[in-house]
Design a protein that fits this description.
Layout lengths: L1 E10 L2 E11 L4 E5 L6 H8 L7 E6 L2 E2 L5 H6 L2 E4 L11 H7 L9 H11 L1 H5 L10 H14 L4 E5 L7 H16 L3 E5 L3 H7 L2 E6 L2 E6 L1 H6 L1 H7 L3
Parallel strand pairs: 3-8, 3-9, 6-7, 7-8
Antiparallel strand pairs: 1-2, 1-4, 4-5, 9-10
Length: 233
């Protein structure tokens, strides 16, 4: 389980996170929603070691990872798929996928690839294609697949549906559910509040760097403040 306690993070003199406390239980999908600038991406970057906290604790499976480097955190099983995909556009699909397996013994990589191709069959067909020539939806599949290549226990997804057509959005959320059913815990940051809370076991609403609300996905969807602020209802 991921446990974050009273986390504070700043960019220079600008405070970004204020006493953030949340938990991601094993085997669940936990969704973090909120407006742009609320601190959601900052939280994921801090968990994955890309940013350093001012204070507070981050533990995974009972081990403190606040001071660990990003590669060490990946070895713990915590993998971050960033917003905007961040592919190597001039490399092939399969080379992008293999970048996610840099810490995995070479003998295990073919099995990992087959697992990814099982989730994303289209990537097997496109494996030799240059990633920059793929559609936006296919590029997102590569980004998630690259994360899966690291063998995550906890997969953190930052805005996976951003910029995608409605049909592809549906596919992305179907895949997230499938990944979870394969035994991977998911921490999902997403502005598509309706979809994200519908599939979530638990959700948190972040406002101005603080946790404003928490509850089950269904409880938050029924909350009048959430419906007004994020669903336009």
């Amino acid at each position: 389980m991921l446990a974050i306690g009273r986390l504070q993070v700043a960019y220079g003199k600008v405070q970004a996170l204020w006493d953030v406390t949340l938990e991601v239980p094993d085997g669940q999908i936990v969704t973090l929603v909120g407006a742009n600038g609320a601190g959601k991406t900052t939280l994921l970057k801090t968990v994955s070691g890309l940013l350093r906290r001012q204070s507070g604790s981050i533990t995974y499976d009972g081990k403190h990872i606040e001071e660990a480097s990003p590669p060490e955190i990946v070895k713990h099983g915590v993998v971050h798929v960033p917003e905007g995909r961040k592919l190597f556009p001039e490399m092939t699909v399969i080379d992008n996928l293999l970048m996610g397996a840099y810490s995995i013994p070479q003998s295990e990589r073919p099995q990992r690839l087959e697992r990814v191709f099982g989730v994303f069959p289209v990537l097997k067909e496109r494996r030799k294609q240059i990633s920059g020539t793929l559609s936006g939806g296919e590029q997102q599949m590569v980004a998630i697949g690259r994360g899966l290549m690291a063998g995550p226990k906890l997969l953190m997804l930052d805005e996976p549906s951003l910029g995608l057509a409605p049909l592809l959005v549906e596919e992305v959320f179907r895949v997230i559910t499938e990944i979870n059913q394969l035994g991977v815990t998911v921490l999902l940051v997403e502005q598509n509040t309706q979809h994200a809370l519908t599939l979530a076991h638990k959700g948190y609403v972040m406002e101005l760097g603080k946790i404003a609300l928490s509850g089950s996905g269904s409880e938050l969807l029924a909350d009048s403040n959430v419906r007004k602020a994020y669903l336009g209802l």
